[in-house]
Write a structure and sequence with these properties.
Elements: H1 22-28, E1 30-33, H2 38-55, E2 60-62, E3 71-75, H3 82-87, H4 90-94, E4 101-108, E5 111-117, H5 121-136, E6 145-148, E7 154-158, H6 188-199, E8 204-206, H7 222-225, H8 235-249, E9 254-258, H9 263-266, H10 278-294, E10 300-303, H11 320-331, E11 337-341, H12 354-359, E12 370-375, E13 398-404, H13 420-428, H14 438-441, E14 448-452, H15 468-479, H16 485-497, H17 501-523, E15 535-536, E16 539-540, H18 551-554, E17 560-561, H19 580-585, H20 595-598, E18 601-602, H21 613-636, H22 644-676
Parallel strand pairs: 1-2, 1-3, 3-5, 7-8, 7-14, 8-9, 9-10, 10-11, 11-12, 12-13, 13-14
Antiparallel strand pairs: 4-5, 4-6, 15-16, 17-18
Bound molecules: alpha-D-glucopyranuronic acid.
Alpha-D-glucopyranuronic acid binds next to loops.
Length: about 700
């Protein structure tokens, strides 16, 4: 049914009778689904689509318990359905967090029955998608006893979409899928987007860019400059927002907005946005009331303040607490939340130390309905960074982790770079050396994970077809960070390309190897980063190599390379808790993959296996490109095994990926040689 765009991992292609477990038909021809909430309409539609597609016949949807059939599905909350209560104890269901669900098989009234139940309607949506995932990946369903709960309460997508301009900051998949000129009229695609998100457990969408005011662009339509992100908070836009929020609600997704801190002046008539001014306080309250009157489940505000040209409380000599709390007080009576970003700059030469220095002293002062949203690392979504020290430094504050799904620094729309293994490394990181992982820090009500979106209006949604796996994996990991990368990957491949074992293995292996390769040819693999071209005011880059542009990030000199971030240097290492701090502080214990992030070392410093730093940098750059060549060859082996369209699209990307990775390699190898004067001992010469 989806023609103008791909259906991603919700393909629901027919599985031949002989290839599918008999239990699929036994339980899925009849479904009894409770009534009422909008989410249940979504459940019913999805059963029709999913079962209709996979089994070749839509289920009969019952409005009361079927007593004349010998197998059926029952989907509802316990208070609505006796069959549910008979098969799953009410206390079990009620003990689950919002979004959690149970799936269990049993016998009822002499028939086989599969129950999907949850304490909230949103949980029923997730349970339904889980069931359909089992069907689509060919798993039997006759002996199920599943209890699922999200690990973290809020699992958000942050769109960096510029409304009205339709562009997407750091987006590589075409224009924004949201058409604010057309809204409140809805495009069918919004619903399919909501389905994709709900199917992996996403429960919130911030619809606009954190940069709610942008520098004017020469090429842009001047009329569009008038219509920037901050304007979505204007009364005239709220009808549009209301319409979109109503659609998302069906899938258990709350809508949020990025707001401009100076809104009381820009939208309102005030001459200040001072957070301690009573009129400013009253303005935000009125605005929140107005919003909630239309969107009662509105999720809240995301704010980028005092960073990269966005206004904030500093203008009035106030701090981030004052700024966040005035918004929080306005949202509080309605159950809304402020996501206040910790991505800030300051006077420090090394910006890595800035976020913790600014925010750690404010621990405990934010309102309960404020979440401090921290990027995974201290720099900016680099191919590999150490984890942000802030995760261990704000025990009395609700914190959120911001990851980037879009591939700003990992090859954009061209390179295949699968982020799930990177996110696993981040989420599992032990912040105190006592086994407290980043995910443990995110476990309370009001905490969560936000992913910077990757979706645009391209046919395939994400630009590079394989980048769909990053969106899928983000949702699955946000829901359950304990899932291993291989499991998520295999799931995605089976849903996307079918269950043929050779295809599953080849595509999974390609994805799993891609991130390490990217690290190697874009950084040399020892913790260097940000050696990319910054573009210009009118052209966003971060794609091509340009290592001379930002000397502060790599610290290359004639005698060595790397940045001293120990206590003798910029002081990032000691911001960690001991013993983590100690591990990074010493050259001997610092892990090799982050060595040059924390230490400035002589080019000929010997690594553990006796190889010198400069030689390892060369080796890694060459190896990274070699791996990409192999991945390209592996992809080529899929010709005829998958449909030609997707085969060809990805093949073309791989052709360009190999070329561009080689450009990276050659630029970095020349750069290392120019600074060190030490040739590659294996005599490899970069192309001119
Ligand atoms: C990066 C990115 C910007 C973005 C900023 C942010 O610097 O390149 O486009 O606005 O992060 O996260 O606020």
């Amino acid at each position: 049914p989806l023609e103008e765009y791909d259906d991603c991992w919700l393909r629901y292609d027919r599985i031949d009778e002989g290839d599918r477990p008999a239990s699929h038909r036994r339980y899925c021809q009849h479904a009894y689904v409770s009534d009422g909430a909008p989410e249940l309409g979504a459940v019913r539609d999805e059963l029709r689509r999913g079962i209709g597609g996979l089994l070749g016949r839509e289920p009969h949807l019952w409005h009361h318990p079927p007593r004349t059939v010998d197998g059926f599905l029952a989907i509802g909350t316990p208070d609505e359905m006796a069959v549910v209560r008979d098969i799953v104890a009410v206390e079990t269901v009620e003990s689950l967090a919002d979004g959690g669900y149970c799936m269990r098989t049993g016998r009822w009234n002499g028939a086989d029955c599969l129950v999907v139940t949850a304490p909230t309607d949103r949980g029923l949506v997730y349970g339904t998608f889980h069931l359909l995932r089992l069907l689509a990946t060919g798993r039997p369903i006759d002996d199920l006893d599943v209890i699922e709960e999200p690990a973290t309460a809020d699992r958000l997508i942050d769109h960096w979409d510029n409304p009205f301009r339709k562009s997407v900051e750091r987006g590589y998949a075409g224009q924004s899928i949201f058409d604010w000129e057309l809204l409140p009229e809805l495009r069918p695609r919004y619903e399919d987007y909501a389905r994709l998100l709900a199917s992996v457990g996403i429960n919130g969408v911030v619809v606009n860019n954190v940069n709610t005011q942008l520098p004017p662009r020469e090429s842009a339509n001047p009329a569009h400059d008038e219509l920037e992100g901050w304007r979505l908070l204007e009364t005239r836009s709220l009808e549009k927002l209301t319409s979109l929020a109503g659609l998302f609600r069906r899938y258990g997704i709350r809508t949020l907005l990025s707001v401009n801190f100076a809104a009381p002046m820009r939208i309102g008539e005030l001459d200040t946005a001072d957070p301690l001014d009573p009129e400013v306080e009253a303005w935000w309250k009125r605005k929140a009331d107005e919003l909630y009157e239309r969107v009662p489940d509105f999720g809240g505000f995301l704010v980028k303040a005092d960073s990269e040209g966005q206004p904030g409380p500093y203008e009035y000599d106030r701090d981030h607490v004052d700024g966040a709390n005035v918004l929080a007080r306005a949202l509080e009576p309605h159950g809304g939340r402020v996501w206040w970003r910790a991505f800030v700059y300051g006077s420090h030469e090394d910006r890595a130390v800035q976020a913790a220095e600014t925010f750690a002293p404010l621990d405990g002062e934010f309102h309960d309905n404020v979440t401090v949203q921290i990027k995974n690392g201290p720099i900016d979504f680099q191919p590999r960074e150490p984890v942000s020290t802030l995760f261990g430094a704000m025990p009395e504050t609700n914190v959120g982790c911001e990851l980037q799904i879009t591939q700003e620094y990992t090859g954009q729309g061209v390179h295949c770079c699968y982020h799930v293994p990177m996110w696993k490394e981040i989420l599992e990181f032990d912040v105190d050396g006592e086994g407290t992982a980043v995910t443990d820090v995110l476990g309370d009500e009001g905490e969560g994970i936000a992913g910077v979106g990757a979706v645009g209006d391209d046919y395939n949604w994400t630009g590079h077809y394989l980048s769909q796996a990053n969106l899928y994996g983000f949702g699955r990991l946000a829901w359950n960070p304990d899932l291993d990368a291989e499991t998520i990957t295999e799931e995605w491949v089976r849903l996307t390309f079918g269950t043929e074992p050779a295809v599953v293995e080849t595509v999974s292996d390609i994805l799993m190897a891609s991130w390490e390769a990217t690290i190697k040819y874009t950084t040399g693999g020892l913790g260097l980063m940000h050696m990319m071209d910054n573009g210009s005011e009118f052209l966003e880059n971060h794609y091509d190599p340009s290592p001379e542009e930002w000397p502060g990030y790599h610290g290359a000199t004639a005698d060595g390379i790397g940045v001293d971030r120990t206590s003798a240097g910029s002081g990032y290492a000691p911001q960690f808790r001991d013993p983590v701090a100690e591990r990074y502080e010493s050259v001997d214990t610092c892990p090799e993959e982050l060595l040059l992030f924390f230490h400035h070392l002589p080019w000929e410093h010997e690594l553990e296996d006796g190889t010198t730093v400069v030689q390892r940098l060369y080796d890694n750059c060459f190896e990274g490109v070699e791996t990409v060549r192999e991945l390209r060859a592996d992809w080529a082996s899929l010709e005829g095994e998958i449909d030609h369209e997707r085969y060809r699209h990805t093949m073309e990307r791989f052709d360009e990926h190999v070329e561009h990775a080689a450009i990276w390699r050659d630029t970095l190898v020349s750069f290392f040689y120019e600074h060190s004067g030490i040739p590659d001992e294996r005599g490899r010469v970069p192309r001119a």
